[in-house]
Amino acid sequence: MVPTWISQEHTLWFPLKKRLFEVFFHAKIAYDTPMQAYAIKAIFIFFLWALFVGLHLFFLQTFLYFELYWLDIVMHILGGGLVVATAFYINQSKIFPRYSALAISHPLTILVAFVIVWEIFRYAVATYIAPNYAFDTTLDIVLGLGGGLLVYWPLTSRTI
Q1: I need a surface site. Which of 28, 43, 47, 63 has the fewest CB within 10 A?
Q2: What DSSP designation does 33 have?
Q3: How many other C-beta atoms can be found within 10 angstroms of the C-beta atom of residue 15?
Q4: Which DSSP symbol is given to 132?
């Protein structure tokens, strides 16, 4: 039984309400077009990236990364999850059909490349390198990969 507010197609928020209903109640609702489902997912992932980058910049400006050491751990886990979610939905939407079947476009391959490139970038622009830099970098890579795996497993085990 679909609630009455779902059937109000004349509202601007209808696609978002439809998607939220699916996510929270695990119900399947047929979309008008396949791209409508991917558009809603793309908007949601864009919002999550904007929130993630905004939090990162806020933590840098307020020096919270230095005061609360565990924020770095949380941000690496969330970052790995966002990379996998983005790669998964781009792959699933077949925006780039020639590359969707290649191993290089697999979300976990993209995650490994992204995490390593991020750590190289961080080393290249670092103004301060801690004495335990090798341990911190290794931990960051492991946490990023772990966050990606935490997101990849539910995405491939059932349809969200």
Answers
A1: 28
A2: S
A3: 17
A4: T
Give the count of beta carbons closer than 10 Å to the beta carbon of residue 90. 20
Q: Which residue has the tokens 């699933």?
A: 92
Q: Which residue ranges make up each domain of the chain?
A: 13-157
Distance CA 62, CA 48 (A): 21
How far is the C-alpha of 126 from the C-alpha of 120, rounded, in Å?
A: 10
Q: What is the pLDDT of residue 21?
A: 57
pLDDT at 138 over 80: yes
- Look up tokens 């941000």; give the residue: 75
3-state SS record for 37-101 = HHHHHHHHHHHHHHHHHHHHHHHHHCCHHHHCCHHHHHHHHHHHHHHHHHHHHHHHHCCCCCCCC
Exposure pattern of 39-62 as b/e (b: 16+ CB <10 Å)?
A: ebbbebbeeeeeeeeeeeeebeee
For residue 93, what pLDDT band results from cuts at 50, 70 and 90? confident
Give dist(CA 67, CA 36) in Å, integer. Answer: 43
Check if the beta carbon of residue 42 is closer than 8 Å to that of residue 89: yes
**Tokens 């230095």 belong to residue:** 66
